Amino acid sequence: MPERLHARVEACYRQAEAFFKRPFSRPQVSFELRGQKAGVAHLTENKLRFNPQLYRENRDDFLRQTVAHEVAHLIAHQLFGAGIQAHGEEWQLIMRGVYELPPQRCHNYEVQRRPVNRFIYRCTCPQGEFPFSAQRHNLVAKGRRYYCRRCKATLSFTGEQRLE
């Protein structure tokens, strides 16, 4: 996909190599991430996944901050091993020292939420309406039971669905 993103990943690695004076293995990069996350680093697989929609909508900040953020996770893992915290001291050191960027844990990109189908369940309480996700509804179909915390009754599907 975007050549600029691949170039930024490579630039981040070269910066880290110059800073730490050692080579780092390059990751596999994919653009198969959807939803609210801008990027994800898979440490043991040495893989980076990025959200193409958030990249398109926030290109400059994404290239500067998000790519460095995710690369820093892989660099920290290669330097310090698996026992470190995701956004701990080691990762922050890389963000500040190597990339000279603020160690922000989360992005503030506007995320368009898709309408989600909800399955309506009820109990015996007057206001006892519970919108279930498709995943939870499927678990009920396989025999799982959910109970109301107030009246302790088993929640039952009303047959009603709605988009939220």
UniProtKB/TrEMBL annotation:
Entry keyword set: Hydrolase, Metalloprotease, Protease
InterPro entries: SprT-like_domain
Molecular function, one GO term: metallopeptidase activity
Membrane-crossing residue ranges in chain numbering: none
Hydrolase keyword on record: yes
Highest taxon above the source species: Bacteria
Domain SprT-like, first and last residues per copy: 7-158
PANTHER family cross-referenced by the UniProt entry: PROTEIN SPRT
Name of protein: SprT family zinc-dependent metalloprotease
